[in-house]
């Protein structure tokens, strides 16, 4: 995801509060986008749906 896309709807968890230490995610055509909420124009990750499912399951198990 090297180019910002104005048509992508980014969201963050309602549980994240106002602390500013959040990630935002977006449903993309074939992947899930992940970015830092403090730097929306900065680097982004693009994870396959399987990678996203594995990541969130791992984080929930901690």
SSE blueprint:
Blueprint: E1 23-27, E2 32-36, E3 44-47, H1 49-61
Domain DUF397: 9-60
Protein name: DUF397 domain-containing protein
Organism: Actinomadura viridis
Question: What does this protein look like?
Answer:
This is DUF397 domain-containing protein. The chain has 62 residues and is α+β, with helices and mostly antiparallel strands. The protein has one domain. Helices cover 21% and strands 23% of the residues. The chain has one helix spanning 49-61; strands spanning 23-27, 32-36, 44-47. It has a three-stranded antiparallel β-sheet with strand order 1-2-3. A hairpin with a 7-residue loop joins strand 2 (32-36) and strand 3 (44-47). It starts with 22 loop residues before the first strand and ends with a helix. The mean pLDDT is 88.
Strand residues, percent: 15-25%
Radius of gyration: 12 Å
Count, helices: 1
Low-confidence stretches: none
Number of strands: 3
Q: Which structural category fits the helices and strands?
A: alpha+beta
SSE order, one letter for each helix or strand? EEEH
Protein name: DUF397 domain-containing protein
Pfam families: DUF397
Domain DUF397: 9-60
Organism: Actinomadura viridis
């Amino acid at each position: 995801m090297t180019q910002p896309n104005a048509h992508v709807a980014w969201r963050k968890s309602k549980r994240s509060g106002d602390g500013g230490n959040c990630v935002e995610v977006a449903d993309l055509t074939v992947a899930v986008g992940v970015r830092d909420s403090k730097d929306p124009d900065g680097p982004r990750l693009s994870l396959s749906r399987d990678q996203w499912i594995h990541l969130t399951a791992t984080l929930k198990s901690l």
